[in-house]
Amino acid sequence: MAAALKFVHDNARRFGGDPSRITAWGLSAGGSAVGQLALSPVSRDYIAGTIEMSGSAWASWALGPTVSNNSLILAWVVKLLQYM
């Protein structure tokens, strides 16, 4: 998602957009993801605003240990895939 957001930011002008005015929208888990993208040092510079509907980066189900563990596992797998 961060890579897609960077692509939109980097190419907004080609489509008549303004990269300094990008707003990300998400519903439920998507709302949580959008909030986390806005907070992340990896992607926060690419978002001017968020619309988080029925979801939040601060929701208990978005911050639980399962989410953290799964994120670490995913990061490990992605790193391994770079070498395949």
Observed structural traits:
84 residues; mainly alpha; two-stranded parallel sheet; 4 helices; 2 strands; 50% helix; 12% strand; Neuroligin/BSAL; CarbesteraseB; Carboxylesterase type B domain-containing protein; AB_hydrolase_fold
Question: How would you describe this structure to a colleague?
Answer:
The chain is mainly α. It has one domain. Helices cover 50% and strands 12% of the residues. The radius of gyration is 14 Å and the shape is flat.
Q: How many angstroms does the end-to-end distance come to? A: 22 Å
What is the overall pLDDT average? Answer: 84
Computed CA radius of gyration, to the nearest angstrom: 14 Å
The quaternary state of the protein chains shown equals single chain
Largest sheet: 2 strands, parallel
Q: Report the principal-axis shape.
A: flat
Helix amount: 40-55%
Q: Flag low-confidence runs.
A: none
Strand content: 5-15%
> Can you write the helix and strand succession as a string?
HEHEHH
Total strands: the figure is: 2
Q: Based on helices, strands and strand pairing, what is the structural class?
A: mainly alpha
The side-by-side strand order for the widest beta sheet comes to: 1-2
Summarize the structure.
This protein is mainly α.
Secondary-structure map with pairings?
Blueprint: H1 2-11, E1 23-27, H2 29-39, E2 49-53, H3 60-63, H4 65-81
Parallel strand pairs: 1-2
